[in-house]
Amino acid sequence: MPIPRDFPDSPEQAGTMDDLGFDGPHFVTPWWPEAGRDVPAAPPAPLLPPPRATPHRPGDTTDLTDEIARLARTAHHVMLQALGEWILEGTSRPLPPRAEDSVLPGPLAVLEAGEAALTQLTGQVPTAVRTTVTWHHDLPPHTTGLRARATGSGPAPGACAWAVHHEGRLIAEAAGTTGPTAQEPGRALPEYPRRFRPLARTTRPHVDASDLALLAAGRAAEVFGPSFGLPGDRPAPAGPAGFRLLDEVTFSGLRAGRYRQGHLTATTRPGARAGWPSLLEAAWQALQVHALRLGLHLCLPAPRFHPWNGEATGIDVPDTTRLGGPLTLEADIVSVGLVPRPHVVADVRVLDGSHLVARLHGVGTVLREEPGAAIGPREPAHTLRHTTGGEPTYTHELHLAHAAEGDLGVTYGPSGTSSQRIRPRPPRGDMLMVDRMLTAPYRQGEYPTGVTYTTEYDVPDDAWYLEENAGTAPNLFYLETSIQAAAFAGAATGAGLEHPRENLTTRNLEGQACLLRAVDLRGRTVRQHTTLLAHTPLPGAVLQRYGYELMLGDEVFYRGQTVHGFFTEPVLAQQQGMDAGRLVPPWLHRRETPPATARVLDLDGGPRPGRGRLDFLAGAAAELVPDGGTHGAGYLLCTKPVRADDWYFAQHFLHEPVMPGSCGVEMLFQMVKAFLFHTGAITEGRLHALTPHPGAELRWTYRGQILPHHRQVQAEVHLRDVRREAGRLVARADGSVWRDGLRVYAVENIALQDDSDHRTRVTA
User: Fold this and answer.
1) Cβ neighbour number for residue 336 with a 10 Å cutoff
2) Among 200, 532, 610, 727, which is disulfide-ready with 227 (CB 3.0 to 4.6 Å)?
3) Residue 27 pLDDT more than 90?
4) How far is the C-alpha of 398 from the C-alpha of 421, rounded, in Å?
5) What Pfam families does this protein map onto (predicted)?
6) How far apart are CA 730 and CA 692, in angstroms?
7) Is 753 exposed, middle or buried (0-12, 13-18, 19+ CB in 10 A)?
């Protein structure tokens, strides 16, 4: 008989008799009420309905048969619950409470309970283990009521399984076999693995036994630095067993390892208990140390570590007798994230000296707040998350992560929840360029102009947009971090909650901005000041204009204004492009005959301004006219297909993929660079020295969007002039972007300079 999983809390959660621990496909669904109907916990006192006040008539919707069926369904549900509890009570093995588990039982207690039940059933301890452990709920608050049950039945010889319940709730279960060792499972590596940014920075690459003792005592700030401390000197979390199975942990780079998400090596203490449950506990402890080093504990109130239940954990131990001595754990981090809660998942190789003795696949730990604790935005006076300068925040990384790809109720509170699938969200993953909001909104649903909101963004030392742009910040960065901060401020004040019964999305419409000075961003915190200048409600839409500044320390280095629209789907569908719905072709295609100087370029055969995700000219067909364009100073037209799997569609936005306008603008910047190179104005060595020109005001207008189902993108640039200023080459141009023949972007005053002496370049 299969092991019973959770007995349903309501009939709607049950499907078949097999789901309740019975053999056979005996469907009981017809007995359950329809979804959404309440069912009493026990049958009502009268066994028959009360007499009717009026005699029954044909067509009466309160037919006696319906009422009898309702009572029968209720009685059936209650009987099955009682029967299931009786089965579980009679077949499970209670676990006696242990002193070390009196506060919160560790996962080791759950695993050992299951293994003890299995040993009692089979009468032997296996010498080889290949099993899968699945966690269904967080650790219970105590061991009282913890029960384990094992079965030897299964589809393969030697198959075995166990399940551990706490007060009737399934906590964890394991299923496996003592058969031959399986091949190491593989994982697909994405083309651009997500780069998780730690919530605090440290330079500590190693922790020893004394550091682990400090971490077990909750003193993370003494190990990794002051920014890892919690307000009020509250202790940092540690697992129920502390870190007593470990001797030391060494960390490699955040982009190291098989999956480029990080790598760590841990050694277990001599004399640690043998057996795969203790091995798995040691792996959990190592990942918990890594979670603390990433600062994951900084965004939750009084968090506790639990086993990750996002995927099953595979355990493969060919010879359990080799698990007794000190072991080395080599963990390749698979993923780190904040949704639904801060977590670390890894694949682990276990070695005894140079010999591989075990593999653990999908080991994970997650931090969760205490039950009932509030995790939403807080007034700064009561927040737990502070900036590196010690200032309290209103929203922080957890809220922004949920705003991008999680539960909007976490970000905006109960009013943020909506039955509509599409709501305003910031970009996801590596495109998210705002971290914290320091200013609490005025009052949700009120939009006083002149109010300034302060947000922050931590630029990584190895930011992908710097690496893929030869070490300098592309214009894409300046646009994204500023307009994301403005859009989030607008959404936080309540604009994103307008029209709650309709899908609502946000789009940037236009703006102008100026880079005041070039800055070295690596490892710095950018502070964004966003001021609401205007709020205009319209039928099916809300328009907001913002002014903004980007700062490093006390110095402003970027300033601009922008307009965002919050649109219902019918209103957004009315966008007609830049030319009132007319299909106006690019300048070159409006010529009756091609200019005599026009030529085709092979962009793929030579150097390009960007690489990786920033290589917007890859696969583009290019036509150049050295003396063409509206200003007669030069012209370049590029045409490329739209691919539904282009990287930005997965990042921008959840449930509504769209090409960011910043990508189209960046493509125009790169086209100016390509024009200068292919006309001989600069050499290949100078190509990556071209940077946005400080002091030049960029202006953009968006009147349409590029979606995955569109076929083609075209972009053109018209050179205004190319000249020397203060000994530097400076080029200015205007540009436009089309999709499937409709012009949707217009950009003015694209300005670049030859910044050959810049010192922020990263060697490719």
Assistant:
1) 23
2) 200
3) no
4) 21
5) FabA
6) 10
7) buried
Closest CA to 357 of 131, 128, 160: 128
Q: What is the pLDDT of residues 31-40, one digit of tens each?
A: 233 333 333 3
Q: Measure the CA dihedral 369/372/376/382, to 10°.
A: -90
Give the tokens for residue 516: 């005041």
Q: Rounded to an integer, what is the distance from CA 751 to the centroid of its chain?
A: 35
What tens digit of pLDDT does each residue of 350-403 get? 999 989 999 999 999 999 998 889 999 988 777 889 998 889 999 999 999 999
What does the pLDDT read at residue 177? 67
Strands 452-458 and 504-515, by their bridges, are unpaired
Measured distance CA(618)–CA(477) in Å, rounded: 20
- Both tokens of 599, joined, read 């030529």
pLDDT attached to residue 178 = 56
Residue of 290, 652, 678, 688 with catalytic role: 652
**Apex 50 CA angle, 48 and 52, nearest 5:** 125
Higher pLDDT, 21 or 643: 643
Q: Which two tokens stand for residue 211?
A: 């550091």
What is the DSSP secondary structure assignment for residue 637, as one 8-state letter? Answer: E
Query: Is residue 451 packed enough to be buried (19+ CB in 10 Å), middle (13-18) or exposed (0-12)?
Result: middle
Q: What does the alpha-carbon distance between residue 724 and residue 722 come to, in Å, rounded to a whole number?
A: 7
Q: Which residues partner with 135 through β-bridges? A: 172
Give SS3 for 232.
helix
Q: Per-residue pLDDT tens for 714-723?
A: 999 999 999 9
SS3 content of the chain, % helix, strand, coil (to 5): 25, 30, 45
Please provide the DSSP assignment of 58-94 as one string. TT-SS-HHHHHHHHHHHHHHHHHHHHHHHHHHHH-EE
Tokens 């039950």 sit at which residue?
371
Q: How far apart are the C-alpha atoms of 467 and 446, rounded to whole Å? A: 41
| Token couple for 95 | 């676990």
Tally DSSP H helices, then E strands, for the chain: 13, 27
Terminal Cα-to-Cα distance of the chain (whole angstroms):
60
* Torsion angle defined by CA atoms of residues 160, 166, 169 and 174, in that order, rounded to the nearest 10 degrees: -20
Reported as a single tens digit per residue, the pLDDT across 131-175 is 999 999 999 888 788 899 998 754 455 678 999 999 889 999 999
Position 237, amino acid: P
The answer to whether residues 735 and 635 touch, using CB atoms and an 8 Å cutoff, is no
Please name the residue ranges forming H helices in 205-264. 209-216, 220-224
Cis peptide bond upstream of 141, omega within 30: no
The alpha helices in 602-646, defined as continuous H runs, are none
pTM of the model: 0.85
Cα–Cα distance, 424 to 153 (Å, whole number): 50
At residue 622, does pLDDT exceed 70?
yes
Which 3 state secondary structure label does DSSP give 100?
helix
| CA gap 667, 468 in Å, rounded | 14
Decide if 597 contacts 627 (C-beta within 8 A): yes
